[in-house]
Design brief:
By secondary structure, the chain is of the alpha/beta class. About 35% of the residues lie in helices and about 15% in strands. Strand 4, helix 7 and strand 5 form a beta-alpha-beta unit. The longest helix is centred in the last third of the chain and has 19 residues. The chain is globular and about 70 Å long. Bound molecules: pyridoxal-5'-phosphate. Pyridoxal-5'-phosphate (PLP) binds next to helix 4 and helix 5.
């Protein structure tokens, strides 16, 4: 009988099983004769009173199966949300009124939106930092309630030292939350580095098929998990049972998808570097996202109309390769180069992807 793996066990000690095994075995029903292999999609708003579940906004077995799996990978207890944005909101709700938040200047635009919205209403104060400058981030964390961390950043792909910054921030009493959407728990485990909270847009690589929007928070401390769960129950930013089912189906192949797309990303970086149409090729050395910088907005806008395989679309982490010029969004930080195109590398053959992109780059005026 395969070992049952629960988030509680992950929390107590380092997981005994490899992540490749956990994504397959976690969140399964029992192994009694006749048990279904997968947790069914529980389409119900309410449950007969007196059992584990009472009402659909409080819990759903289809969420639990996904939460056990992502929680096992990150090494904590997972609370799933309707979107990455809802997950981020629940974490920011933990900051006391007037509390100071330290955040990367180049955070994801939606995250910047959360911060700016709360600053505008006087709810929080913000200190923007360059996350590659460990000393500056630790200095800024003095007196702060929360250090928000995104690494690699979207779309600048800057990498910060999570362990060092967490230690420095904890010394000053700040909580540390890490948006782990880009790295995934297979390339970076912030809770093992001492961080308090991990956040995901499960819309991206975790589910991996561009067919749903979901988010998650993972933490080790029970009081933090309870507070996050209470926010979800109160505000109601809950995932649907169907999307949780799809996200679980997606995460089961995360290791193989990631390995393949990452290998292709490396090939693309090699073949793109030095192309005369490019001022820069950015790659943090791991993961499936590459940012290329063209000589201005115009050639970048032209590029995205000239490929046949690469799809001009926002979002990332799907099986299909997508790309977009990030500054087409007014909310994107002005310090992101106007000609930066973020590539999300999918599962098509590396030669086909490279050929399509290089032909488009060659054809630019
Ligand atoms: C997409 C994204 C989010 C927001 O998630 P949604 O699922 O779109 O709400 C947060 N952080 C990062 C790094 C993202 O890429």
């Amino acid at each position: 009988m395969p070992p049952e793996f629960h988030a509680d066990a992950a929390r107590a000690e380092a997981p005994a099983l490899h992540p490749e095994t956990l994504v397959v075995t976690a969140g399964r029903p029992g192994h009694e004769p006749g048990d279904p292999m997968n947790v069914p999609i529980h389409l119900t708003s309410t449950y007969v009173a007196g059992g584990e579940h009472e009402y659909g906004r409080f819990g759903n077995p289809s969420w639990t199966a996904f939460e056990e799996t992502l929680g096992a990978l990150e090494g904590g207890r997972c609370v799933s949300f309707a979107s990455g944005q809802a997950a981020i909101s629940a974490v920011l709700d933990l900051v006391p009124n007037g509390g100071i938040v330290v955040a990367p200047r180049h955070s994801y635009t939606g995250t910047i939106g959360h911060f700016e919205d709360r600053v505008a209403t006087g709810r929080i104060e913000i200190r923007w930092v360059d996350i590659t400058d460990t000393e500056a981030v630790i200095a800024a964390s003095r007196g702060a309630a929360l250090v928000w961390f995104e690494s690699p950043t979207n779309p600048a792909l800057e990498v910060g030292d999570i362990a060092a910054i967490t230690a420095g921030a904890h010394a000053g009493g700040a909580l540390v939350a890490v948006d782990n959407t880009f790295a995934t728990p297979l390339r970076q485990r912030p809770l093992a580095d001492g961080s308090d909270i991990v956040v995901h847009s499960a819309t991206k690589s975790i589910s991996g098929h561009s067919d749903l929007v979901m988010g998650a928070v993972v933490a080790t401390d029970d009081a933090t998990v309870d507070a996050i769960t209470a926010r979800r129950t109160l505000v109601g930013g809950i995932p649907s049972a169907f999307e949780a089912f799809l996200a679980l189906r997606g995460i089961r192949t995360l290791p193989v998808r990631l390995d393949r797309a990452e290998a292709t990303a490396r090939t693309l970086v090699e073949r793109l570097t030095g192309h005369p149409a490019l001022a820069e090729v950015r790659y943090p050395g791991f993961g499936t996202i590459v940012s290329i910088v063209l000589h201005g907005a115009e050639p970048a806008d032209e590029l995205v109309t000239k490929t046949s395989l690469w799809i001009h679309a926002t979002s990332l982490g799907g099986v299909e390769s997508t790309f977009e010029r990030r500054r087409r969004w007014p909310a994107e930080a002005e310090t992101i180069p106007a000609g930066l195109v973020r590539l999300s590398v999918g599962l098509e053959h590396a030669d086909d992807l490279a050929g399509d992109l290089l032909a488009a780059l060659d054809s630019l005026g």
